[in-house]
Write the structure tokens for this entry.
Amino acid sequence: MKKVLTTPISDEAIKSLKVGDIVYLSGTLVTCRDEGHRRVIVEGIMPELPLENIAIFHAGPIVKDVEGGWEMVSIGPTTSMRMERYEKEFLAKTGVKLVIGKGGMGAKTAEGCKESTAIHAVFPGGCGVVAAEQVEKIEGKEWPEFGMPEAFWILRVKEFGPLIISIDTEGNNLFEANKVTFHQRKEDALNKTAKEIVSMIAKS
Amino acid sequence: MTQNEASNTMIEMVGKFVDLVSKQLPDDVMAKLKELRAEETTPLAKAIYDVMFENMEKALTLNRPTCQDTGVIQFFVRSGAKFPLLGQLRAILREATIAATKSAPLRLNAVEVFDEKNTGTNVGSHVPFIEWEIVDDSANIEIEVYQAGGGCSLPGRSIVLPPLAGYEGAMKFVFDTIVDWGINACPPLVVGVGIGTCSNSAALLSKKAMLRPVGTHNAHPKAAEMEKKIEEGLNAIGLGPQGISGKKSVMAVHVEGMAHHPSVLGVGVTVGCWANRHGVIRFDENLKYEIISHKGARL
């Protein structure tokens, strides 16, 4: 059965989630990426929409203007790691409970998730149409001056996912753990490949 | 057809082709993804592949760009010297980009340099980006369009190594790049490696290598062997779909090279994501077209 988180998200609802679990989201989801994080943390300006207990999405959508509003065309996740510098502070300042993006985030965000009781999850990258179909409505837009990808889009979503938990409220970090494994495997794979290629090139 | 009419016809056709490439992955990539999907065994890896395939299907039925990041539009032009619209081509490709941006619609991705403001049109200085090659004396032209998101553009890099670093140094550069940066570039990846004589020749060759159809091999037996060895090595790392770990890291590794200065070995790496949106279309002098990359597709 699908496990669905609904906004406002309580601490209890996310505390039981562990890295590698799959969940879905219903409720309010706002896009917030590089410019949005810079505005909140560096400029100290908050959006009008209260962010407490809702979810943000590292994403820059394609949105079509239609009569009386907007239509979501395609909205997949962008690389979360770009927001690593500010995310910990962002969580503490906003009370956001769920951060959705692509790829993992670093140690600082993991610390932030533990301290602020929040989680990071990944939506499969490059799947912008599936995600767009789970957006019921674009409820609003703030910071339009950032342009289409960077604006702060306020979305109402239904069973948005699959979301794979990559950092849980204990600060466990799926991608950082994977990275250690990948680096260990790289040493062996590189040695073998380099040796084979050097000897092949040397053959006349 | 006057030259003006011909230009307008070509704008319309290239525009439609750019639109198509944003919504439908080419045959070579589709075939490989099906193969890799069948190999994955863990619930997470399978779940990700399921969503990827659901997404490709929905992009087609709903007529939408498969990924929201439709890139800065790039064209690789391989033309005969006598193609009649060669002199107008830069303007044609620019207008075609604007047309596709409206029709698809594509994301507005052109941020004007120095002013750092989004142009709002998806074109700007040197955008669309065009690489030109005059390949023969014919009146035919082949245009390849590529739409790379920011995520898979990020790992791209080149370096010029001293000769003693040799192919061993080149391999370290490739493996470091993929493991440090490939995870966020939406694996399984297409990896292009260029061996050149300076930073830009290596980078360009790596881009050409990446764009080669998946399933093709370099004609030089040693280069083909190198492709196979690097592919095996990178797959042994097991990045899996989206870097969550799995059986494979890459769809393909392609290597292209050139003769180089004895004192240097340039190495370039270009990475393409799983949603590898590249497409090739050919025109003859009468603008009769043939789509090479997407069999059966019509404009």
